[in-house]
Specification:
Elements lengths: L6 H8 L5 H23 L1 H4 L4 E5 L5 E3 H13 L6 E6 L6 E2 L10 E9 L10 E9 L7 H4 L8 E7 L3 E6 L4 E7 L4 E6 L10 E3 L10 H12 L10 E3 L4 H11 L2 E4 L12 E2 H14 L3 E3 L16 E2 L1 E4 L1 H12 L4
Parallel strand pairs: 3-5, 11-12, 11-13
Antiparallel strand pairs: 1-2, 3-4, 5-6, 6-7, 7-8, 8-9, 9-10, 13-17, 14-16, 15-17
Bound molecules: 6-O-phosphono-alpha-D-fructofuranose (P6P).
């Protein structure tokens, strides 16, 4: 067995440049948060925290006790480095500003979805945490400072609380995965330089929305379902976990295409998934791993956000499939 590389040693060897010290410090806080979230989830049924609250989050979704608990863990952990001057979370309507006595060292923004896929948590299906790091233009950031296109991200990553707990991230030099050794309480490099296969025969989409989709997506899925007898001349497999983190991780490992496209049910809100702390970090990761990520009409990382909790249609994964789907969006005929 080759020598195990601890995540902090990996950071020391591979995080360079102007953000080196800050990123290392912020990521150490993220690691702490994800270890604590893994424990909170693992013991949820034992601690009686698997229930729904009577409250709704800013998205109008029923909150689980663990949504609130994991959000608080992330906020508390992220204040240690002294580099984070602002935070935004799926679970909070407004941004959080950290004044300079808490963050004297530097000016970075941390955006996160603390418990993605939380509707799965009480049925023991994988869930995750998604995070994104941006540079702040100054201390005491305002909302407008968060509304940066995804191409401005300095770092993006996710924790996957699955059959093992993993941390997968990019700082712009490829995508690397680390697995938690529960006995030692340390993350170790297990998936260096993850690359998405350019071709795939597996798609991930919530098929119950078929009648609401726009023609290009219906055409793509129809062709996948026609299999060998159809234009694609090959059979396809389908997966839908309803945890974006689990889907994206599977696609990073073995290829695939993940779609939460625009549909007539959600047209008014602009899509299902949130741009700043779901689509952007996952798009950064996907592109760094050789995949693509689009709304169907444009590269997601080029979208200039207009609101903190803005939603967006998402199609991401294996390059050749995403290119095909984007082509279909260029030709609206079915
Ligand atoms: P649906 C989880 O709530 C989430 O934001 C993503 O993680 C997941 O891919 C999607 O929504 C699931 O949506 O409509 O299938 O429940």
């Amino acid at each position: 067995m080759t020598e195990k590389i601890k995540i902090t040693d990996y950071f020391s060897a591979h995080i360079n440049g102007e953000h080196r010290t800050a990123l290392t410090a912020i990521l150490n806080d993220v690691i702490t948060a994800c270890k604590k979230i893994a424990i909170a989830i693992d013991s949820g049924a034992l601690e009686g925290t698997m229930h729904n609250l009577s409250s709704e989050n800013v998205q109008g979704e029923v909150q689980k006790a663990l949504d609130v608990i994991t959000n608080e863990i992330f906020i508390e952990s992220a204040q240690t480095s002294g580099y984070v001057v602002g935070m935004a979370s799926e679970e909070m309507e407004e941004i959080i500003q950290l004044d300079e006595d808490i963050s004297p060292n530097g000016q970075y923004l941390l955006l996160f979805d603390p418990l993605d896929g939380s509707s799965n948590v009480n049925v023991n299906i994988s869930v995750g945490t998604i995070f994104s790091i941006l540079k702040s233009p100054g201390a005491m950031p305002v909302l407008a400072d968060f509304l940066q296109p995804g191409s401005q991200q300095i770092c993006a990553g996710y924790a996957l609380y699955g059959t093992s707990t993993m941390l997968v991230l990019t700082i712009g030099n490829g995508v690397h995965g680390f697995t938690l050794d529960n006995e030692l309480g340390e993350f170790y490099l297990t998936h260096a330089n993850m690359q998405v296969p350019a071709d795939t025969q597996e798609f991930a989409i919530n098929m119950s929305n078929y009648r609401f989709w726009q023609a290009p997506i219906q055409r793509y899925i129809d062709e996948c379902l026609q299999g060998e007898e159809g234009d694609r001349e090959k059979d396809f497999n389908m997966r839908w976990v309803a945890s974006m983190v689990a889907e994206i991780h599977r696609i990073l490992v073995r290829g695939g295409v993940f779609m939460y496209p625009m549909d007539s049910k959600i047209k008014k809100q602009g899509g299902k998934l949130r741009l700043l702390y779901e689509a952007n970090p996952m798009s950064f990761i996907m592109e760094q791993a050789g995949g693509l990520s689009t709304t169907g009409h444009m590269r997601i990382l080029e979208l200039v956000p207009s609101a903190l909790h803005q939603r967006v249609p998402v199609i991401m994964g294996s390059k050749h499939e995403v290119e095909r789907i984007a082509t279909y969006h260029g030709k609206t005929k079915r």
